[in-house]
């Protein structure tokens, strides 16, 4: 059974940093694209970042230059480094994985989802 488990969320002041991790189990994801999405209260789930099997990345305009997505295929884990956090980054962050190699920003293209981790940025 495939599982994606997020960790690293928490409460941080504006301007601070957090690093989210997503550990995959149940199968190897080294040949799969993985991504992060987030959902703020009362809003739809939105794209944050994605990484292809070979490390190509895409970012939402709202996080470009502040967030960095990376992957460690040996550990079956992806990391989202979030710097210069803003109150508008407050949301539940979800890790997701595709069955395919290409990094795509559309959430409907993702086949596996984690339970989410809360990130709260205070002003």
How is this structure best described in words?
The chain is mostly beta strands and 123 residues long. Helix content is 0%, strand content 48%. It has no helices and 11 strands. The strands form 2 sheets. Strands 2, 4, 5, 6, 9, 10 and 11 form a 7-stranded mixed β-sheet that branches. A 4-stranded antiparallel β-sheet has the order 1-3-8-7, with no helix packed on it. It is globular, with a radius of gyration of 13 Å. The N and C termini lie far apart (40 Å). The mean pLDDT is 96.
Q: Could you describe the largest sheet, including whether it forms a barrel?
A: 7 strands, mixed
Mean pLDDT across the residues is: 96
Order of helices and strands: EEEEEEEEEEE
Q: In what range is the share of β-strand residues?
A: over 45%
Tally of separate helices: 0
Supply the helix-strand structural class: mainly beta
Taking pLDDT < 50 over at least 5 consecutive residues as the criterion, the unreliable ranges are none
Number of strands: 11
Radius of gyration: 13 Å
Distance between the termini: 40 Å
Give the % helix. Answer: under 10%
What coarse outline follows from CA principal-axis ratios?
A: globular
């Amino acid at each position: 059974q495939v599982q994606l488990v997020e960790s690293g969320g928490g409460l941080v002041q504006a301007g601070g940093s957090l690093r989210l991790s997503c550990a995959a189990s149940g199968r190897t994801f080294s040949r799969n694209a993985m991504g992060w999405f987030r959902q703020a209260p009362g809003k739809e789930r939105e794209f944050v970042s994605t990484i292809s099997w070979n490390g190509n990345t895409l970012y939402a305009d709202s996080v470009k230059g502040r967030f960095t997505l990376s992957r460690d295929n040996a550990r079956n884990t992806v990391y989202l480094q979030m710097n210069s956090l803003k109150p508008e980054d407050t949301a539940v962050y979800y890790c997701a994985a595709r069955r395919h190699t290409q990094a795509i920003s559309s959430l409907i293209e993702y086949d596996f989802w984690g339970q989410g981790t809360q990130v709260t940025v205070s002003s």
